[in-house]
Design goal:
Elements: H1 24-52, H2 58-85, H3 88-109, H4 114-142, H5 148-174, H6 179-195, H7 215-227, H8 230-260, H9 266-286, H10 294-303, H11 307-313, H12 318-346, H13 352-365, H14 367-381, H15 383-401
Helix pairs in contact: 1-4, 1-5, 1-6, 2-3, 2-4, 2-7, 2-13, 3-4, 3-6, 4-13, 5-9, 5-12, 7-13, 8-10, 8-13, 8-14, 8-15, 9-12, 10-12, 10-15, 11-12, 11-15, 14-15
């Protein structure tokens, strides 16, 4: 007797991963991060306008910006500990509110009290510094592991866009608003950064609440966690070297080369714009790119920053300098995005903010030291020898870091699904 065959079971593969850009929780976090980036990049520009309007002297500008940097460096270490102790969302809230409260104080002191402005700038820097590791750890709570590289690419695109849009928007608004009002606008951006992000889910593997040690002991515990990951120490050393030597050297030398060799300031402007546009392109590439040897690919991207100082050494056409900066921008994001993603993947969840704070503390903290040393070195030895040393460091230090055990994959084993 004939029987009706049973219907075949349809073959279904795993559902396609949902884009992180369709996740409301991430979009709120992304928008808050973007607002903080705009506020961060706009502040030095607004203070520069105050100098042009003779409401702040050049020496005062240096003091205020130095106070902001000092506040950042102190708070980024403390903020990392607090973000691992308490709710990362709460740390973002209170640190961004602190930065927001600094804005009216800056406006109040403008043209009246340099002391008030200096203290307010330190408070603004502290809010900014405490936010950074908390935002980094909150990303790991809000976004699932398989979408974090895409999320980190979107985050870094927000940062790069802020570097272009922050000063540009400020310049446009300056045609209609005075400096004090612009400072209050920066405070409103920090309010957005404070209030918009939502609370993330507790990270898997987070430890249950326990009696707390001192801030210093917990920070040292974060250092111990970082030391467990040779790839992290190698990457941090390479990144710090490239920023403190390569980035600092080009920051000082590019204006000089643009003026003395090419006789115009547009080469400097075009090169810096090309760097930012290249970084945006690099972030787009890394949103989906998963190389088999992710660490080696990232270190190669970091090393290509060496083409920026190399192009300034040689009597080349301005287009070559601009192209070198674009390539350097692409390379820096080929490093940054996998670097952030690997840190979120490999570091113990309850120590993630502290380890991230080490990243910001060293890479940002040593940049002013590099800037302070490069100018005297150029005066003593000349531009070309200093640029040659810095270019060599950019090429060689990441290459050496790539030889460290676990550096090839930014972890003990290759990331699952790597191609």
């Amino acid at each position: 007797m004939a029987t009706t065959p049973a219907p075949a079971t349809p073959r279904t593969g795993p559902p396609p991963a949902r884009s992180v850009l369709r996740d409301t929780a991430f979009l709120r976090l992304w928008a808050g991060t973007t607002a903080s980036g705009l506020a961060t990049w706009a502040l030095p520009f607004v203070l520069g306008l105050a100098v042009l309007h003779r409401e702040l002297g050049a020496a005062g500008l240096g003091l205020v910006l130095a106070a902001r940097t000092a506040g950042f460096l102190v708070a980024v270490a403390v903020g990392g500990v607090l973000a691992d102790r308490h709710s990362r969302r709460a740390v973002v809230l209170w640190s961004a509110l602190a930065a927001a409260s600094a804005a009216p104080l800056l406006a109040l002191g403008l043209g009246r009290s340099l002391l008030v402005m200096t203290l307010a700038a330190a408070l603004a820097g502290a809010g900014q510094g405490a936010c950074r590791p908390a935002f980094q750890a909150l990303t790991a709570e809000v976004v699932a592991a398989d979408r974090r590289q895409q999320a980190n690419a979107a985050m870094t695109m927000a940062v790069r866009t802020s570097t272009l849009a922050g000063p540009t928007l400020t310049a446009l608004l300056a045609a209609f608003l005075d400096v004090g009002t612009l400072l209050l606008g920066i405070g409103l951006l920090w309010l957005v950064a404070a209030l918009l992000p939502g609370r993330g889910a507790p990270a898997a593997g987070s430890a249950a609440p326990a009696p707390r040690a001192s801030l210093r002991a917990e920070f040292v515990d974060g250092i111990r966690e970082a030391r467990r990951h040779p790839w992290f120490l190698a990457g941090l050393g390479a990144l710090t070297a490239v920023i403190a030597l390569g980035y600092s050297a080009t920051s000082v030398a590019l204006p000089l080369i643009s003026r003395d060799r090419y006789g115009t300031g547009w080469v400097m402007a075009a090169a810096m714009t090309a760097y930012t546009v290249g970084a945006l392109g690099g972030a787009l590439v890394t949103a989906r790119r998963r190389p088999r040897s992710q660490g080696w690919s990232a270190f190669a991207g970091l090393a290509v920053y060496g083409f920026a100082p190399l192009s300034l050494m040689l009597p080349v056409h301005p287009a070559v300098v601009i192209a070198a900066y674009a390539v350097a921008g692409i390379g820096i994001e080929l490093f940054n995005v996998p670097w952030f993603t690997a840190t979120q993947r490999e570091v113990a969840p309850d120590k993630l903010a502290r380890v991230s704070s080490l990243d910001f503390l060293l890479s940002y903290g040593l940049a002013p030291v590099g800037l302070a040393l490069i100018a005297p070195a150029i005066a003593a030895f000349g531009v070309t020898p200093v640029l040659a040393v810095c270019a060599a460091a950019c090429f060689l230090v990441p290459a050496a870091a790539a030889l460290v055990p676990t550096a090839r994959h930014f972890g003990r084993t290759p990331e699952p699904g790597a191609r």
